Amino acid sequence: MIPSIREQYNRDFTQEKYQALVDDVADTFGHRPPFRIAETPIFIDRELKNHLIQACEDITDVIVQPNFLDLSASALLAGQVVPNETPHTTFLQMDFGLCRAEDGSIIPQLIEAQGFPSLYFFQEAVAERYRKYFGISDEFAHRFGGLDAAGYREKLREIIVGDHDPENVILLEIEPEKQVTAIDFYVAKKWIGVEAVCVSKVIKEGRKLYYEKDGRKIHIERIFNRVIFDELLLRDDLPRQFYLTDDVDVEWVGHPNWFFRISKHTLPLIDSPYSPKAYLLSELEEYPQDLHNYVLKPLYSFAGKGVIININRFDLEAIKDRENYILQRKVEYAPVVPTPDVPAKAEVRMMLLWERGAARPQLVNNLVRLSKGEMVGVRYNQGKVWVGGSVGFFLP
Questions:
Q1: Could you report the per-residue pLDDT of 93-138, keeping only the tens digit for each?
Q2: Taking each helix axis from N to C terminus, what angle separates 120-134 and 182-192, rounded to the nearest 10 degrees?
Q3: Where are the domains of the chain?
Q4: Fold of 161-253
Q5: At what angle do helices 15-29 and 120-134 cross, to 10 degrees?
Q6: Which of 76, 65, 6 is nearest to 261 (CA)?
Q7: Contact between 31 and 186 (Cβ < 8 Å)
């Protein structure tokens, strides 16, 4: 988005530098991510940065409303409500597609908001390596709020571990070593000492939880939750003593209920120029005349599953559980990142942390996904280069 910086980066790029970056991640953390790290970060000027920050403020305004718990109550599904819910989410993320306004400028358009953690550790690690191997100027920052590297890591430690011994805090996942995002768990272990534990390995004794490490049974006092209910419901093969819906003596960091409360279910509540109009299908009395400009999304899915891009009236009328779908105006990603072959589209995830008792969450970091396919995602970018996971560097 800053032509002179983009031209210089593309001119100075070498495959050797890129491979060194990818190998550095694998060597430092003992794990090679199965997803594609993009060859380039993106460089964001002040105008687009201000748009993104204002978009985050608009959406945050909805979530901090005193009645948000009531507005989001129907998002919680019977049989999936976890006890001891925290007053607000700990993690908040907003995904924006970068689009062209009528005047040709670049504007962000909300794709989805999430009350769930994703890659807060890896994003910091990969940003450091873009700086190291591609000489990113200190003029650009990928963090927000004046945080430096040490301050960012310490904030993650304070929020996730707090005053507990790291040994008594676990990162909870389903077979963590098999997750596509496992690199985030390896970085977390190295930086704050938290073990990734599979739900099938949690021991339950009365209201207390334990896990085994080096032949010892260790008490779990706090859970940094990375379990997605949709995935867990498909894993009847996992032997388990502990179910997330059990009332147990444990603190949650990233309480599972907020995965549902802040999700696609939130989109119809938002009124902002940065958020395309969205409607609960069950509440629509008549369909928009320009249905071709809308996309149908199931409320309860992840990684783009079940999304119908090209819809018609017959698709909508065939749906029985209409309360589980939203109709959202399409976001037309613009190819705004020049690469050696064709320009790439970009989606920016703004990453926030909400400390217990704070009035609002704080913007701390970002994640970028580059795509040349119809949608952002691995299966739409097979065989393509200069696509994948990346990060944004912002002018102050």
A1: 999 999 999 999 999 999 999 999 999 999 999 999 999 999 999 9
A2: 90
A3: 1-144+260-276+341-396, 161-253, 277-330
A4: Rossmann fold (3.40.50)
A5: 140
A6: 76
A7: yes
